[in-house]
Task: structure prediction
Amino acid sequence: MDLEEKREKRPPVTPMMIEEEAALRNGSRGLPPGSWAEAAGPRPRTTERHIAVHKRLVLGFAVSILALLAVTMIAVLLSVRFEECSAAADGPPRASGNGSLPGAARQPPGAGQPPGRPEHEEEEKEARGGEVVEEEEEEEWQRRRELPPWTRPRLPRHLRPLHYNLMLSAFMENFTFSGEVNVQLEVLNASRYIVLHAHRMHIEAVRVAEDKLAGGVRVDRSFFYPQTQVFVVVLNRSLEVQKSYNLKIIYNALIENELLGFFRSSYVLHGERRFLGVTQFSPTHARKAFPCFDEPIYKATFKISIRHQATYLSLSNMPVETSVFEEDGWVTDHFSQTPLMSTYYLAWAVCNFTYRETVTKSGVVVRLYARPDAIRRGSGDYALNITRRLIEFYEDYFKVPYSLPKLDLLAVPKHPYAAMENWGLSVFVEQRILLDPSISSISYLLDVTMVIVHELCHQWFGDLVTPVWWEDVWLKEGFAHYFEFVGTDYLYPGWNMEKQRFLTDVLHEVMLLDGLASSHPVSQEVQQATDIDRVFDWIAYKKGAALIRMLANFMGHSVFQMGLQDYLTIHKYGNAARNDLWNTLSKALKRVGKSVNIQQVMDQWTLQMGYPVITILGNETTDNVIVISQERFVYDIDAKPKDPALGDSSYLWQIPLTIAVGNTSHISSEAIIWVSNKSEHHRIPALEEASWLLGNINQTGYFRVNYDIRNWRLIINQLTRNHEVISVSNRAGLIDDAFNLARAGYLPQNIPLEIIRYFSEEKDFLPWHAASRALYPLDKLLDRAENYNIFNEYILRQVASMYLKLGWPTNNLNKSLVQASYQHEELRREVIMLACSFGNKHCHQQAATLISDWISSNRNRIPLNVRDIVYCTGVSLMDEDVWEFIWMKFHSTTAVSEKKILLEALTCSDDRNLLNRLLNLSLNSEVVLDQDAIDVIIHVARNPHGRDLAWKFFREKWKILNARYGEALFMNSKLISGVTEFLNTEEELRELKNFIKSYEGGAAVSFSRAVETVEANVRWKKLYKEELFQWLRKSLTH
Ligand SMILES: [Zn+2]
Result:
């Protein structure tokens, strides 16, 4: 699964107006979005109804009390409900033998009601009906001194599903569906209870029969237990061990409006609104679409049939085997049986999309389905083409063929995540898969590419071999994220993604988050279903990927690859936990004669939160001996660790520290030192007077390195004299380490600023990118300081000469250019962004000229790769007419990538009225898509002229926003960090704390992270701001 906004978002460049004016202002500007806090956050999830589950727990108590006051009325309701339910449960199922669904199911409870009307009332009654039964049952279990099996957070282990037959009828005209599921069950321990997941559905009938024999097992009663989202079938005799049974359930439900389970969305074609239905089951939403054992460990085979109007087509994981047409214009598609798989990877869709198709060398049919106009324009061709090549790449890399006969990619207008890797039917939000080469920038192309590489990796890591339980979700997500870079290198060999861009986009980004005391271990315990969303966060994705990369590097890439091949071969069609992987990798190492206990090493990295900073000190008294020590890195040393039992002093890691010695023209080959103690002495041969040490070669390790000041000075001299002695990735690594060590107070403030002094000679993209990202939070800490212009001037000086050398791109990209000049174009883009952000006059003029040309000619000749910078600079510098012009273009354009940057440009204005207008419009779903509203608010918060507006707007609208995005929602946590991350005064900290106190709970994790971040900001300003300015003043006068 791919979270929204995974990669760096291009920032609103918020340039200074006019320089004279700038001198008078305390304004600041936007650099690239460091996204150090943007990253944050538990996972997407949606809305009111989910909260209803939490609330229902509380409501449960209230209802019981109310029940005493209104006994008669409720009792009548309950008994009526209960009779219906048990009648249905006990009576003969109404389905006819040929598998068609009962007439009643064609008119499910939603039918005739306006679409979207939730089934709340039904469900509430059901739940209360359940409470009565459940009390009786619970008493019985209390006598046995055990918890009833349906109240436990995990399903009881006495049954195992072997195969599901699922027949669905989708009624798109009223957004309901009915289903009949037949589950073949194996009994592992005798029991009278069948407990399986089912949520938000109306169950019409339940029947249990011994397999093969026709004899039924009488159902005593059945009920929902909403707290654990299960449905309980109580039989009047025990199911016998080692026999298998068939459980048949007939049910119906809504095709939901919220984006989970089986849900609907729509798009407009030729002025007409068209609807589609599609599923999102990960992590725990299959239970909303059919009763099932909805835990990853219960792998089974599935045979699905979907009945729908013939004007639609249906898709599922497997190809259609047969289609049966009926006279009334309906058709039933019968899909082939799946291999063994987990419920959360099941998928189906009912839509009237069209497709294009390709076939891999090994014969896998790949189709891209999208709305007909997009297919006609060819917007899916890029994705289709790289998918074919990537399947071939993975088949070769893993030495395990793709498991299914086909893979469909489905581009949908609305989806809760960027994409979801359902086996054979992966779903993507349109912005992450459709691409129009004539108007897409390199970064957009990169985004699309990497999302596809990610989802395809999951066809092996996830679909084929599935984590046993959600605590190890980081394994599948870490792998998919890591392979985004490896797979993109396969497609574009010159881009060096794994060696370079991985550092800035993954490693540096997640170390910002994981350096907070309120972080958490990458492997997290998960019990309740409601906690599962929490584990899909940036720590799981990015730290997971960074740890896997460290592992691949200390193992050696070829041994690592062999180990992965073994792991996939051994566990295919099954589940595996992290220890299974560690064992397989240890064995692979053993085969090449190396003995490392990978489990022992990796447990420290996956079960402890945070990461170490290594300090390397030259020993002044003894030659050639250095002292290496480790401690946990934290930004705010005053912040309390989340678990006080784990004081920072107890943190230790086994660290594969690579180290090299350099002098003016040469660097030695690297040696590896395993550091496992708090402090160690090591002998380094050939350590001469003028030679410097470099640790963590090419930044393959997940830690920071600090040195004594003498060594830092030698490194700075080396960079100034001949920076190419130090590799590109190490230059980027040194920059990121230095800025962050200084921010946390481990290093004097001037060191990072001295490091970037060699930038007039830096021709590689990566160090620029690392610097621009590291400067971003520093800029935000200083932007309201009186002496801000000193900082501004210092940065402009470092940028000026490369800006002059590189100039502006003159024409638009064509396809071949993308391949050839990625590094060069990205470098130029980065430098232009810094120049325009910090107020380079020429940069401002150039942007204004380009915008004026667009307005006067109505032809957009602005080079694609800098359009966002130009739009933003134009909106910020020029008058209101430009804002109106961009606003008009935002409405009229249909290309998704263009729409997004136009909207973001609107947040760059320095006119507070316009910013307020935009904030208010952002909540109007007709104008701004729900998922884009958050970007609008965050981008206004990054604009120095709008920061307080966004902060105020956030607090005033919190109730609306929280209701819209839900409290466990990834979007919500992104919003919270985006709006608060740059607050840095005592007053703002107080406002934040008061605000948290004044509302009723929710999003506690995000808010505690926000408080820690703002506290660290305030602390840094108090301790180091003056030191920095003093040095800057001195430096500029020299
Ligand atoms: Zn994923």
User: Anything to note?
Assistant: Confidence is low (pLDDT under 50) at residues 5-65, 74-130.
